Amino acid sequence: MNLGRFLRKVDEATNSAGLRFWLNRHLGKAGKVARLDLDRARRRVEMVLELAGESDSLELRLDGYQLIRSGDELLVKFGRAEASRVWLDALSEKFVSGRTVKIPPDLSGLIEAYLDADEPVE
Question: What pTM does this model have?
Answer without folding.
Answer: 0.73
